[in-house]
Amino acid sequence: MEIAPLHAWDVSPQVAIATQIDLAARLQDRPLDLAGVRHVAGVDVSVKEGLSQAAVVVLTYPELQPVETVRAQQPTTYPYIPGLLSFREGPVLLDAFARLTILPDVFLFDGMGRIHPRRMGIAAHMGVWLDRPTVGCGKTHFMGHYVPPASRRGEYSPLYIDHEVCGAVLCTRNGVKPVYISPGQHCDLAGALALTLACTTRYRLPQPIRLAHQAAGEFAG
Predict the structure, then answer these.
(1) In a 10 Å sphere around its CB, with 0-12 CB exposed, 13-18 middle and 19+ buried, how is residue 59 labelled?
(2) CATH number for 163
(3) Which parts of the chain sit beneath pLDDT 70?
(4) In a domain, 8, yes or no
(5) What are phi and psi of 9, to 5 degrees?
(6) What is the pLDDT of residue 1?
(7) What is the pLDDT of residue 59?
(8) Residue 169 within any structural domain of the chain
(9) What is the pLDDT of residue 174?
(10) C-alpha–C-alpha distance, residues 199 and 126, integer Å
C-alpha cells in the first residue's frame, strides 16, 4: 500500500498541535456504503519495553474471515502526551500499512476518531494519511458528555464536545459496557455505527479490533 507523506513526526508538541488543527480541516463526512465493502481492517498498537508494535488485520466483509495480518515494530521515541497519541503511534502504523497487499475498504481503529480536543484522534489522523474511510472505536470515556444509552445491542447516545456531536456511545452487546464510536476520515457517524455493529459478533469489541489487538500484543522473543 503506497502512502504519500503529509508531515514530519518528530516535532515539538506545539508543532504537533498546529499540525492536528491543519489536518482537521481536511476531514470529510461521507456516507459509508456497507454494500460496497469487501474488506475491513482492524488496527491496533501495543507498547512493550520501549518497543511499539503495530498490527493490521484484514478481514473479508461481511463474513469477517481474516485474510491478511501484517505487523511492524519501531522504538517508541515520542513521549506520551495526552491528545498527541498519533505522533507516538503514527510512524509504526504507517510502516505496517505499507506492508499490506490487500487494500481494505475501511479501517477500524482501537482508539478515537473525532472524539478529541482537535477532532484528530488516531483514526482521524491516520485517515487523512491513508485517504480511506476510517472509524475509531474506543473502550473508555476520553472526553465529552452524553446520556448513557440503554444496555441493549444497537442502542446508542450522541456524544457532545462543545455542543458538537463528535461521536456516539454504543451498546454492542446486551448488558455490557458501551464503546465510544466516532468517524475518522471519509465516513459519517451513521456509517461508523453501522459498521461497528456489523463487525461485532459474540464480544463487546468488533472482531477486526479484537484480532488486531491480539496480533499487536504478540511480541516475538
Answers:
(1) buried
(2) 3.30.2170.10
(3) 220-221
(4) no
(5) -105, -35
(6) 85
(7) 98
(8) yes
(9) 96
(10) 20
Non-local (6+) Cβ contacts of 216 within 8 A are 44, 45, 46, 53, 54, 55, 71
Percent of the chain clearing pLDDT 90 (strictly above): 96
In-domain check, residue 154? yes
Domain residue limits at 174 = 13-216
What are the CB-based long-range contacts (under 8 Å, 24+) for 13-21? Answer: 13/81, 13/84, 16/81, 16/84, 16/87, 17/83, 17/84, 17/118, 20/83, 20/84, 20/86, 20/118, 20/120, 20/125, 21/118, 21/120
Please list, in sequence order, all residues whose beta carbon lies within 8 angstroms of the beta carbon of residue 49, skipping any fewer than 6 positions away: none
Overall number of domains in the chain: 1
User: What backbone phi and psi angles, to 5 degrees, belong to 190?
Assistant: -60, -40
Q: What pLDDT does 220 receive?
A: 64
* Structure-block grid coordinates of residue 7: 508531515
In a domain, 221, yes or no: no
